[in-house]
Amino acid sequence: xxxxxxxxxxxxxxxxxxxxxxxxxxxxxxxxxxxxxxxxxxxxxxxxxxxxxxxxxxxxxxxxxxxxxxxxxxxxxxxxxxxxxxxxxxxxxxxxxxxxxxxxxxxxxxxxxxxxxxxxxxxxxxxxxxxxxxxxxxxxxxxxxxxxxxxxxxxxxxxxxxxxxxxxxxxxxxxxxxxxxxxxxxxxxxxxxxxxxxxxxxxxxxxxxxxxxxxxxxxxxxxxxxxxxxxxxxxxxxxxxxxxxxxxxxxxxxxxx
Amino acid sequence: xxxxxxxxxxxxxxxxxxxxxxxxxxxxxxxxxxxxxxxxxxxxxxxxxxxxxxxxxxxxxxxxxxxxxxxxxxxxxxxxxxxxxxxxxxxxxxxxxxxxxxxxxxxxxxxxxxxxxxxxxxxxxxxxxxxxxxxxxxxxxxxxxxxxxxxxxxxxxxxxxxxxxxxxxxxxxxxxxxxxxxxxxxxxxxxxxxxxxxxxxxxxxxxxxxxxxxxxxxxxxxxxxxxxxxxxxxxxxxxxxxxxxxxxxxxxxxxxxxxxxxxxxxxxxxxxxxxxxxxxxxxxxxxxxxxxxxxxxxxxxxxxxxxxxxxxxxxxxxxxxxxxxxxxxxxxx
Amino acid sequence: xxxxxxxxxxxxxxxxxxxxxxxxxxxxxxxxxxxxxxxxxxxxxxxxxxxxxxxxxxxxxxxxxxxxxxxxxxxxxxxxxxxxxxxxxxxxxxxxxxxxxxxxxxxxxxxxxxxxxxxxxxxxxxxxxxxxxxxxxxxxxxxxxxxxxxxxxxxxxxxxxxxxxxxxxxxxxxxxxxxxxxxxxxxxxxxxxxxxxxxxxxxxxxxxxxxxxxxxxxxxxxxxxxxxxxxxxxxxxxxxxxxxxxxxxxxxxxxxxxxxxxxxxxxxxxxxxxxxxxxxxxxxxxxxxxxxxxxxxxxxxxxxxxxxxxxxxxxxxxxxxxxxxxxxxxxxxxxxxxxxxxxxxxxxxxxxxxxxx
Amino acid sequence: xxxxxxxxxxxxxxxxxxxxxxxxxxxxxxxxxxxxxxxxxxxxxxxxxxxxxxxxxxxxxxxxxxxxxxxxxxxxxxxxxxxxxxxxxxxxxxxxxxxxxxxxxxxxxxxxxxxxxxxxxxxxxxxxxxxxxxxxxxxxxxxxxxxxxxxxxxxxxxxxxxxxxxxxxxxxxxxxxxxxxxxxxxxxxxxxxxxxxxxxxxxxxxxxxxxxxxxxxxxxxxxxxxxxxxxxxxxxxxxxxxxxxxxxxxxxxxx
Amino acid sequence: xxxxxxxxxxxxxxxxxxxxxxxxxxxxxxxxxxxxxxxxxxxxxxxxxxxxxxxxxxxxxxxxxxxxxxxxxxxxxxxxxxxxxxxxxxxxxxxxxxxxxxxxxxxxxxxxxxxxxxxxxxxxxxxxxxxxxxxxxxxxxxxxxxxxxxxxxxxxxxxxxxxxxxxxxxxxxxxxxxxxxxxxxxxxxxxxxxxxxxxxxxxxxxxxxxxxxxxxxxxxxxxxxxxxxxxxxxxxxxxxxxxxxxxxxxxxxxxxxxxxxxxxxxxxxxxxxxxxxxxxxxxxxxxxxxxxxxx
Lengths: 257, 333, 357, 255, 295
Ligand SMILES: Nc1ncnc2c1ncn2[C@@H]1O[C@H](COP(=O)(O)OP(=O)(O)OP(=O)(O)O)[C@@H](O)[C@H]1O
Ligand SMILES: Nc1ncnc2c1ncn2[C@@H]1O[C@H](COP(=O)(O)OP(=O)(O)OP(=O)(O)O)[C@@H](O)[C@H]1O
Ligand SMILES: [Mg+2]
Ligand SMILES: [Mg+2]
Prior knowledge:
The complex is a heteropentamer of chains A (257), B (333), C (357), D (255) and E (295).
Chain A: E1 4-15, E2 18-29, E3 33-37, H1 44-51, E4 58-63, E5 66-67, H2 76-79, E6 81-83, H3 96-104, H4 112-116, H5 125-141, H6 157-169, E7 175-179, H7 187-203, E8 207-211, H8 215-221, E9 224-229, E10 232-237, H9 239-244, H10 246-253
Parallel strand pairs in A: 3-8, 3-9, 6-7, 7-8
Antiparallel strand pairs in A: 1-2, 1-4, 4-5, 9-10
Chain C: E1 3-10, H1 17-36, E2 44-51, H2 56-69, E3 74-76, H3 80-93, E4 96-98, H4 122-136, E5 140-144, H5 154-164, E6 168-173, H6 182-191, E7 195-199, H7 202-214, E8 220-223, H8 230-236, E9 244-245, H9 258-265, H10 274-296, H11 302-309, E10 339-343, E11 346-351
Parallel strand pairs in C: 1-2, 1-3, 3-4, 5-6, 5-7, 7-8, 8-9
Antiparallel strand pairs in C: 9-10, 10-11
Helix pairs in contact in C: 1-10, 2-3, 4-5, 7-8, 10-11
Chain D: E1 2-11, E2 15-25, E3 30-35, H1 41-49, E4 57-66, E5 69-70, H2 76-81, E6 84-87, H3 99-106, H4 113-126, H5 128-132, H6 143-155, E7 161-165, H7 173-190, E8 193-197, H8 201-207, E9 210-215, E10 218-224, H9 225-230, H10 232-239
Parallel strand pairs in D: 3-8, 3-9, 6-7, 7-8
Antiparallel strand pairs in D: 1-2, 1-4, 4-5, 9-10
One adenosine-5'-triphosphate sits between chains A (15, 18, 20, 38, 40-46, 86) and D (133, 136, 140-145, 170).
């Protein structure tokens, strides 16, 4: 098996009495397409929040051998971790293009002075230009190019989801955390996004961890599936194995699957 | 944004026009123009802080004071040449601003605004205490500069200097807005937590915004002192800070045009009201409460009809003009 | 018929307009009266007043409008920072400026050659208070608004007190709109203060007087000319009794000159207080200078007015303020600083004092 | 119950989103509104419920009739009073209020305190997850929990007609079925009318009796659920029956 | 020791004036998320109106006071109807700015009608102070203390237990959600403004009693900001308690700081240093609710 990219060990977190995560451990190897499922309120999003530094949990989260817990969250993209949000966290007043550009901004080194001198030889216009071109490409790939100059808040829900994905992708992450990327899409659209995720994973070698409630998609594209319930890991394994697990059936899928 | 050619040509024409016309103006009109120009420069800073980064500062006047006093001190007491002194005053203000911006690490919204309110009170008190710097209640004189061998004693020349600074400030403002830093400002304003996870160093961005805003305030303060040839702490009081806040909101948040239009609004509306009254009587005194009330009403009514500020109204007019000249791009604004 | 146009810069809207309004009203009423009584040798005087709300840049702009567009030879002005800010422009345009702030900066002809005022400057007044305490015997405590004109004379008062052997036992601050002065009173009680110099406005002085009474402290306040006014008596009511002030003018109705009669008849009765009277005196002072020019056959302009002012010796405009003397090297209007006391709800002069120049 | 006639909606005075759509929701029935991203489904619901204005939109022309009465351009307040409740996309809870208080707010238009208490108990029973979180501020809830709360809150008002925008979004498969079961149960027991926007077309057509397909601001197809299930176009684009074929409906480009 | 105790006691009772005024600000913020910069002017106009009614009608104070409250209700309704209602969808800052504009207008009215010279307020409270041993406090402050406690209890219960209170909190939490629940926002805003204006009117009558009426009374609106923030912008209890805290701090600051530091004017500034320090530890004040950032 390839080297472990993400190692989550004994991660626990509680919110004033609510035990959101309890001793969750798993690891994701390089190049894997890994899904997390579980009932509502199981702690999936919270787990993402721990990985991306919104919360500081107990336990250890290692990425490429680097401990993430306690590190500032704005360093994640630099390390190669990028995410999307379940409830959409675009910058509502900004245009789609600016939203997407923020994703790759961590790579720009232009400070105040170079910004001020934009067009001069010392300025940052070149860098900016090339980033803009790259952003355009990815926006085209996700079919949101025509909205480039539209403020994000004026987009339909599904379109916003795509923009979020674009924002994550311009960062050229090694690890992509997707929180319900296909919620609110028709099955055709879902399939399109699923195909895209698969492509990213296979062709660009991006490791993907995805939270998704659509079992069809999960079964179809993921290599392994982690199941959480009440903040605890109740199953981990290949999709077909997990789905047969009685505990999973009871907690998540219901009897009738 | 001065994105298309129309705007760029218009801006250049406007600047050239101001530079020429100002040279033929009388003292009074020139004084107003200079004040607008300096206020606009100062407002650009506040607008980046408030409009772009979403942080309210009720201490902008106090920061202008820091710039005004320190430049006067650097020039008169330490004998520094004017140009480096003004820039250094800007930097000093910027450092002070960043120190007072530290609470932004933890505070948001109105609470941050109140921390800046505290900054205003504390700085004002410090001004009162520092007679060596500020002259205490009596204020201190500030000479107009000699720069690169040119004397700006003359009001007409001094205006050109102020205009030059304002233009530089505006260009820098636009450039910042369209580059990484500008996007980071906006991201922090809209959703700071998400921005952080997207790689924006939120704290550093906020501090940078404070530093930038107060640099503008410092330079503008220095010029303001030199325009008045006198700096008094009363010119940097709380009510002036609130006036700047009003200026930026009425002008239009996060827009360069807003800073300029807002400055013109704040300076000109009372003067125009005076002029109207003086046309009918030689006494603005009896009318003073009415004039004050009318000013308040203008603010209220204006915001009722254009809560997004003058910049938006201007944009609309511009769009209309573009459509009617047939050259307009059909982009959504 | 020719008309002389003067300028006025007032504060009728911002804080401190409680003195700004009666002051400019006094100036205007006086000119009206002067015009009605023959003007300046037949020439009428018009004042173009621009209200500036105590705002420094607005005052500078208004001054430029008055000096540049209206070409006035003289401007009636207002407070401390705004008036100081005008100094360079007044010098440059050779325009007379008459503030009602009496800060030291404006009485030095080297710094402000075109500035003339009607009263002793704040420091002289403060020194007189210290001398009064020496005269009565006792110690002195200080209370003032940190910042503003309240603080202006403090250093000089301390200096004078040291010279006079008057002990300064406490030094406190009080804002323009105090909620109470109990803390300060407790301090004064602790320090055993007998006299308290108050550098603030009438509201603050009324609060202090009430709280002194309430805490059973018999110390007496000596207010500066913005604190110890008629409004103080009205606001403090019976608690005002016995306190002192360095009054800026002769209190309303206490003398019998044509000017005072005119003031009483002016219909401004309710606004008639020291600010109004000092405004009136200011206009009369300017009128006197203009008459001197007419007599000398000189045109009325800034430099000539300056010359006329500097000829004045012990001129008391209508008896409303102590006699005024200007010289080319000294623009301190007067060194006469009497002390008044509230007796039976009225200001009564209790001590005359003339300081050496 | 609800009739929409030739409705046109614009945003920001220029961007046309709905281009003359007409449909109908009979009393006591559930009607599905289907369509791709950006087709204008949410916009349609907002236009009916009066929530358009706060988003900068406006009805440019057309009519909305509620039980024969013209209600075009009515404010949300009036629509709620007339018994129309809108569960918005993005949930729009009161983040600072607790779960319980959120539910109580749902009963804003109700007067009978006893009934409110009873309803509250009932909904907490339907969603045990919410019962556990009853005194947590709603802003802290997980996505799915918020979705449950949004639905329960809307139904607390005993509406006569509910506009549901993607109720299944973010819910686990188990809960999706549960929610749909509850919805159907309530619909049948109380005779509610539902206008349902749902991306899970299969599910939607299972519980709705009639459906409309919205594409680029126009109604393309309509029919009973059974007809729609058989529709080739629908199968291709929405039901995902043709497997992995990557298809995408071109989105309505802004003018 | 007596001195110290005196300062503390005085700080507590005098601080209740701040509590009183702070409450008005909190009430509006709690329901509308608007920081009302015209609060001080509302207070000022309340005081002037009360005086005018007393002088014109010659009615006893209590009747005039009630009539003043009636006037405040009408004023609040007018402001809401004419201005704020039309600002519904506008950005929060624009609304704040509008309150500044309203403040200017109210100030102009007072200047135009009553002028700027301070006017003594008829003595409502007995002149006789109440001797508390180390200090004598005037009855005015005692009343303000009692009233602010009563208001705290009343409004605290109002927001916690009543339906209207809940609806107000909900409206502040999410305007759009409230709208979708059928909450008539304008009505809620009107109620909030009315309550706040009435509280301000009470504050105005109390503060007017201290040193007479002058347009400078409006300073109170700004003066109480530290108290409001210290307590937490949306906390009734917070406003009440921190008003008292600020009162005590001011007294202690005025009483000791100058001798300790040799610096002038620290008294009024000291609360601001402490304010910043407290905010550093508790970014939403002592009792303010945490800002929930949704992701
Ligand atoms: N900041 C917080 N304070 C208190 N409780 C919280 C907080 N954040 C999350 N929770 C609780 O922790 C639990 C886990 O939430 P989380 O968002 O991780 O769930 P999830 O698995 O993503 O569910 P869903 O599928 O519904 O999105 C939930 O019950 C939620 O109410
Ligand atoms: N507030 C707004 N301002 C301007 N345009 C808007 C606004 N809201 C939506 N739109 C535009 O209207 C169109 C339809 O949006 P709508 O939200 O109704 O789509 P939808 O069918 O609900 O899509 P989804 O399934 O993704 O939720 C989109 O092109 C969108 O960009
Ligand atoms: Mg989740
Ligand atoms: Mg939608």
